[in-house]
Amino acid sequence: MRAIPIILLCGVLAAPTLAQRGALTVPQNIGQLSQRAGSIVRGQVVSVRVEPHPQLANLMTVVVSLRVTQSFRGNPGALLTFRQFIWDIRDKYDAAGYRKGQDLLLLLNPVSSYGLTSPVGMDQGRFEISRDVHGTLFAVNGVGNLGLFSKIAAPQISSKISAASSSLVVRHRSGPVPLLQLEEIIQSSSGAAR
């Protein structure tokens, strides 16, 4: 009987690791994510395919083409195509969660010498965009925006962002955030020009 609480506690603590498909990553806030990004873009996925890497045949990758609607860092042009290593065999069957028609905000690492990149912090740097019933656009990353604004000193960026965005930084813990405010905070914390 005494072992039951311990077993339940272990199950609860292990649950997040089951959801971490692929790679384990250190939690990062939006400032860290945006500063480490080689490119920051918003757009719609036009194609996705899983295939071996052209030079490293035993390495499975997902190739994503994104129609760019807005670029915050980098010069991707109208169509950005990138290749991401598949960390987990399950990602081979669902294209690592990318889908045609998906509206995304991506904070991508610099491209490696092998032509590979991925969102900074894996799911932390990949935001899916959706519209609520009022037409407002919201963004949420693969970890539910958990800790997205943690350890960000609001006074340091409050002079660079609107009062609504500054309030969001202070009060938000997890869940979707308004896209316009997220983009403003990314620009402020990364020095990205609009």
Description:
This protein has 194 residues and is of the alpha+beta class. The chain has a single domain, classed as OB fold (Dihydrolipoamide Acetyltransferase, E2P) (Beta Barrel), CATH 2.40.50. The protein is 29% helix and 28% strand. It has a 7-stranded antiparallel beta sheet with strand order 3-2-1-4-5-6-7. The radius of gyration is 18 Å and the shape is globular. The termini are far apart.
Entry keywords:
alpha+beta; 6 helices; OB fold (Dihydrolipoamide Acetyltransferase, E2P); 7 strands; single chain; 28% strand; 194 residues
Short description:
The chain is of the alpha+beta class.
Give the overall average pLDDT: 86
Alpha carbon gyration radius: 18 Å
Distance between the amino and carboxyl termini: 60 Å
- Strand content is 25-35%
Coarse structural class: alpha+beta
Question: What are the SSEs and their pairings?
Answer:
Blueprint: H1 3-19, H2 30-36, E1 39-52, E2 60-73, E3 79-85, H3 89-94, E4 103-108, E5 126-131, E6 137-141, H4 154-158, H5 163-171, E7 177-178, H6 179-190
Antiparallel strand pairs: 1-2, 1-4, 2-3, 4-5, 5-6, 6-7
Helix pairs in contact: 2-6, 5-6
